[in-house]
Specification:
It contains 13 helices and eight strands. Helix 7 links the parallel strand 7 and strand 8.
Length: 312
């Protein structure tokens, strides 16, 4: 697999879920099938082990097995791959980064260690430690609301200057328009990615990609939305943005009110769409959405996205 940089890190990337068998072992056969499906429907690259990949459910030995398996799958497919390496301390991040690089996946998503926010001096020391330990890794800064502080544009510009080979891009899903503007204004040399939540704002500012969950449900629709946002077709992009956000805020309100988030919610969305193969299993203490709630969501999906499904 190729090593990406600020010029080659581009496009619509799919977050492939981690398929657990009944909440137990990883099903690598199903993972390979899902990666083939995502490549077939037009994903420009595939990544795992951010929140939708349930990184928090994987201890280090299993993360290493997943890295080797996923790396082998993507090498066979000839596609670009990335992995998230977030953990609660520096040593854990380095271990995951090294496992990813050893598996041939050199581009990694790095969120700051969570549980307690870092002071800015510790942010710099954190990245210095990563650069010393695994210098061949290429970083995408993952701005996650649980991993604080969320870095501003000037912070990213300083890091890019300090680590010009390592820091190549950002994943700015957590940022709204003012913070997006700040990042694009002060750190223009990085490859900035949005997510479906903010792509309507990030595209016109200069985003070059999207780390996507919705390509796993409606790939052709997601590609059209992505292209409209990056091309500045704001009339069409606005219509599609509002439709997706209405789905997220209205039709998923019950699930969110009951506390379902991240990988659990991602697997529920995938289950109602049926594009990927997964039995929906998660790992304790997190459990899948109850069958009756999932069935209501499936009915809502089939009705709300009827026209888009027909076009797929």
């Amino acid at each position: 697999m190729r090593t990406l940089d600020t010029q080659t890190l581009r496009g619509l990337w799919a977050a492939v879920p981690t398929p657990f068998v009944g909440g137990g072992a990883i099903d690598f056969g199903r993972l390979a099938e899902n990666c083939r499906t995502l490549q077939r429907v037009g994903a420009d690259g595939i990544y795992t082990t951010d929140s939708d990949g349930e990184f928090y459910a994987l201890e280090m030995p299993e993360f290493a097995r997943l890295a080797r398996g996923f790396g082998g799958i993507m090498a066979d497919l000839g596609g670009d791959a990335q992995m998230g390496v977030t953990w609660i301390n520096t040593a854990g991040v380095i271990d995951r980064m090294r496992a990813s690089v050893d598996a041939g996946i050199t581009t990694v998503h790095v969120a700051l260690p969570f549980f307690m926010p870092l002071v800015m001096a510790d942010v710099l020391r954190f990245f210095e430690a990563l650069a010393r330990a695994v210098p061949e890794a290429r970083w995408v800064y993952y701005a996650h609301p649980s991993c604080l502080p969320l870095l501003k544009g000037r912070d990213l510009a300083k890091l890019a200057q300090a680590f010009p080979q390592q820091l190549i891009g950002t994943k700015l899903n957590a940022y709204d328009l003012p913070d997006l503007t700040d990042v694009f204004l002060h750190a223009p040399g990085l490859a900035h990615f949005g997510g479906e939540r903010n792509l309507f704002s990030a595209g016109p500012l200069g985003a070059v990609g999207c780390y996507s969950y919705w390509i796993n449900s409606l790939p052709r629709w997601t590609r059209r939305f992505f292209d409209a946002c990056l091309a500045g077709d704001m009339v069409q992009a606005r219509e599609w943005h509002l439709k997706l956000q209405r789905w997220e805020t209205v039709h998923l309100a019950e699930a969110r009110a009951q506390g379902y988030r991240y990988g659990v919610l991602s697997k529920a969305k995938g289950a109602v769409a049926g594009l990927l193969r997964d039995d929906g299993s998660t790992r304790a203490p997190y459990h899948p959405m109850p069958p009756e709630m999932l069935e209501r969501l499936r009915c809502d999906f089939l009705e709300y996205w009827r026209e888009e499904q027909a076009a797929e």
